From TrEMBL, chains A, B:
SUPFAM superfamilies: Actin-like ATPase domain, Winged helix' DNA-binding domain. This is Putative NBD/HSP70 family sugar kinase. The keyword Kinase applies. Keywords: Kinase, Transferase. InterPro entries: ATPase_NBD, HTH_MarR-typ, ROK, ROK_cs, WH-like_DNA-bd_sf, WH_DNA-bd_sf. It comes from the Bacteria. Gene3D superfamilies: 3.30.420.40, Winged helix-like DNA-binding domain superfamily/Winged helix DNA-binding domain. GO terms for molecular function: DNA-binding transcription factor activity; kinase activity. Transmembrane segments: none annotated. Pfam families: MarR_2, ROK. Belongs to the ROK (NagC/XylR) family.
Length: 391, 391
C-alpha cells in the first residue's frame, strides 16, 4: 500500500486503512501521508463520508493559524455478527468495526446436534442480540464464525472435523448467509482466537503464536499481520507433535503426542487412574483450584511439556509473543510457569531475549473478537472499499 | 497487486511485475490483466521500453485477425553481482535479472582474514568476472551478498558472527558499494540459499523450508514469497533445537542440540573417537562415498535426527516442501532417506500428504542465485520501477 511520491494508486480504501488506527486526521495530514493532492483527498473523503465509513469531527485543530476539520474512522457505522462455537458451548456477539462488543451471550450449544440445528440456534441468538442493540439488520456487514475443527479456507466448509458429526463439507457460509443476509466467513476456532489476540496486542507484536490448551491442544499463527495457514491449511497443529519419553496413545492414532500427555482430556484420565473423579479439562481446573496436589502437579507438568514443544518452535520461528489460552491455560500461573521454565532453558538467548510468554489478554472473548477482526479485514480491504465507492 | 476493475493503481512497475514470469504478452492481454485502457498500457510500456526493462518482440500473434506486437521482460538489460561467502570458500558470479549465470568463479577465501581483505578480494573477482562478460559496470544494478553468520536485516551488518572475527558490526553494504558503485544487499547465507531454491521451485511452492546440513545446521524459511525472519531476525535456527536422548555438548553452550549430534563437525568428531581420521564434514562425506560403514551409519542417523526435528516443524508450519542442501545433505541419499523415514512416521498425514522432501535443485549455486533474487526483488519492486520511470 506504499504510495509513490505522487500518490499514485492511493484510493479511498487506502485512505480508510490509514484512519483505521482510530486517530482523527486533517486533510493536510492525509495529503502528506499519502502524497495525494488536497483536492483529491477531499474528493475521496467525500465518498467515504457518503458511505458513512468516515465522520467529519466537530473538533478542529490549529494548522498554520487556520482551524481545520478532522476526519475519523466511523467504526460504529456497521455491525458484525460473531460466533465462536466450541464442542458444547458457544459465545455469540454483535460487535462494531472498532471491536466494541455491543451485545453478547454465552450459550449451551452442542455442535454434535449437527449443522442445521446448531446454526439455526446461532442465527436466532444473533438476531435477538442485534435487536437489543437497536441496530438495523441492514447495518450488519458480515458474519464471522469459528468452528472447533479444521475448515477449508477457500470454501469455509468443515473438513473431516473429528468432534462435529454431520458437519463434514457442510456449506456453513451459504446456509448462514441465507438466514442472516450478510457475507459469512468461517475459520477454525484457534485461528480466530489468534487473530483476536493479535488485534488486542497491536500490529507491532508480530509474529504471534496463540496456543490453546483445553480438552485438546492447538495453535494459531499470525505472521506479517495475517494468519499463517500452511500449504494444506494444517499449520498450527502442535497438539500432535511427539514429545520425549512418552508412548501415551493419542486419539490421532499415533503415540506420544503432546495432546496425549498435556491435554485436558489426558489429565482427567490420569486423575481417574489415580482414583480421583474428573470428567474433563474443567474438572482438572476445578480440582487444581481446590488445592488438589495431583491435579496441580499434572497441570504444571503439562506446562513443561507444552514448553518443550514450543522451545523448538521458538528457535525455528522466532515469535514476538506466545499467548496461552483455553480452559487449562487460563486456570492460573502453573501452566505459564511450566512453559516459561522450559522455553527459557532450551531456546536460544537471541530468540528469547525479547520474547513475551503470557496468558491470553481477551480470555474467552478472543474468539468473538477474532471473528469480528476476520470480517473487518474482509469488509475494509482497500480494494473492497474502492469498489464500493466507485460503484 | 490486485487492481480494481478500472486499473486504478496499476503503474508501470505492476505491469513489469506481470511480465517478469518471462511470457511475452500483447497490449490487449496486458489491458485485460490490469483493467487499464490500451492507451495507458501503451504509455506505460513506452516508459519501460525507454528504460530497457521491456523489449518489444519481433514476433506477432494473431488477435482478432490483426497482427499485434508482443512485449517481454528484458532480463538481460541489467547485471547483478552475487557473492556467496562460506567459512573458507566463496562462490562469486555475475547474473542477469532472469537469473542466468553469465560468469562465475569458486575461490578459496577465508572470512577469518577479516572484512576488508575479504571484501577487497570479492570486489576484485567480481570486477574481473564482469570484464569477461563484456558488460559495462553501469549495467550492474545491484550486489547481493550472503555471509556465514547472523546479519541484521535493516543495516546488512553482521551481528556477533561466531566464525567471522573482525566482522561484528562492519558496514559491509557501504564498503562494497564504495568499491562497486551499486547498491548492496546482505543477508545470512542460508536465507539467500532458501531464496534461490524458492526461485528455482517456482512461486507456487510455498511455504518452503531450506535446511543446510554442513559443518553446522541451519535453515531458511520462505513464506508468502518472502523470507520469514522472525521478531529478532533469528528465525530458522533449527541447529540448536534439543533432540531426544542426547547430552552432547554444543558450541552454543547448551547440550543435546541437533547440530551437536547431526552436524558435520560432530560426525567428524565421532569418527575420530572411533579411530578414523576425519577433520570436518567433507571428510565424513568422502569416507561415506568410499564405503566406510561407520561414516555411512552416522550420516543415516544424522538424517533421522534432522527428520525428528523437522517432523515437529511440519506439524507446526505445514510447508509445501523441505529442501535439503549443504555438504552432508548433497552427499547422497542417506540423509534424505533418514529425514523422510522420520517425518513420514511422525508428522500428521494431512501435513505430509503433499509434502515434498528433496535434495537441493541448485546445489552449490543456490547461494548465488538467491543473492541475485534478493537484488532483483529490490530493484524490480513495482514502487521502485514507478519512481524510476516517473523520475
Amino acid at each position: 500500500m506504499a504510495s509513490g511520491a505522487n500518490g499514485q494508486g492511493v484510493g479511498a480504501g487506502a485512505l480508510l486503512a490509514i484512519l483505521r488506527d482510530g486517530r482523527a486526521r486533517t486533510r493536510g495530514e492525509l495529503a502528506r501521508l499519502t502524497g495525494l493532492s488536497r483536492s483529491t483527498v477531499t474528493q475521496r473523503l467525500d465518498g467515504l463520508i457518503d458511505q458513512r465509513w468516515v465522520v467529519a469531527g466537530e473538533d478542529s485543530i490549529s494548522s498554520g493559524g487556520r482551524p481545520a476539520g478532522v476526519f475519523a474512522f466511523n467504526g460504529g457505522a456497521r455491525a458484525v455478527f460473531a460466533a465462536d462455537l466450541g464442542a458444547t458451548h458457544a459465545r455469540l456477539a454483535v460487535l462494531d468495526l472498532s471491536m466494541n462488543v455491543l451485545a453478547e451471550r454465552a450459550a449451551e450449544l452442542p455442535v454434535e446436534q449437527g449443522p442445521e440445528r446448531t446454526l439455526c440456534q446461532v442465527a436466532d441468538v444473533l438476531s435477538d442480540l442485534l435487536a437489543t442493540t437497536g441496530l438495523d439488520p441492514a447495518q450488519v456487514c458480515g458474519v464471522g464464525v469459528g468452528l472447533p475443527g479444521p475448515v477449508e479456507h477457500g470454501s469455509g466448509r468443515p473438513v473431516n472435523p473429528p468432534i462435529m458429526p454431520g458437519w463434514d463439507g457442510f456449506a456453513v457460509p451459504e446456509w448462514l448467509q441465507g438466514r442472516l443476509g450478510a457475507p459469512v466467513l468461517v475459520d477454525n476456532d484457534v485461528n480466530i482466537m489468534a487473530l483476536g489476540e493479535h488485534w488486542a496486542a497491536g500490529p507491532a507484536v508480530d509474529p504471534l503464536i496463540y496456543v490453546k490448551i483445553g480438552t485438546g491442544i492447538g495453535s494459531g499463527i499470525v505472521s506479517g499481520g495475517r494468519l499463517h495457514r500452511g500449504a494444506q491449511g494444517a499449520a498450527g497443529d502442535v497438539g500432535h507433535i511427539r514429545v520425549t519419553g512418552s508412548l501415551a496413545p493419542c486419539r490421532c492414532g499415533n503415540a506420544g503426542c503432546l495432546e496425549a500427555v498435556a491435554g485436558g482430556a489426558s489429565m482427567a484420565a490420569a486423575l481417574r487412574a489415580a482414583g480421583i473423579e474428573a470428567a474433563g479439562s474443567r474438572d482438572v481446573v476445578a480440582l487444581m483450584r481446590a488445592g488438589d496436589l495431583t491435579a496441580t502437579r499434572l497441570v504444571r507438568q503439562a506446562g513443561r511439556e507444552v514448553g518443550a514443544v514450543m522451545a523448538s518452535i521458538v528457535n525455528f520461528f522466532n515469535p514476538s509473543v506466545i499467548v496461552l489460552g483455553g480452559d487449562v491455560a487460563e486456570a492460573g500461573e502453573q501452566v505459564l510457569a511450566g512453559v516459561r521454565e522450559t522455553i527459557y532453558s532450551r531456546s536460544l538467548p537471541l530468540a528469547t531475549q525479547h520474547l513475551a510468554i503470557r496468558a491470553s489478554e481477551l480470555g474467552d472473548r478472543a474468539g468473538i473478537v477474532g471473528a469480528a477482526v476476520m470480517v473487518a479485514e474482509h469488509v475494509l480491504a482497500p480494494s473492497a472499499i474502492d469498489r464500493q465507492i466507485a460503484g
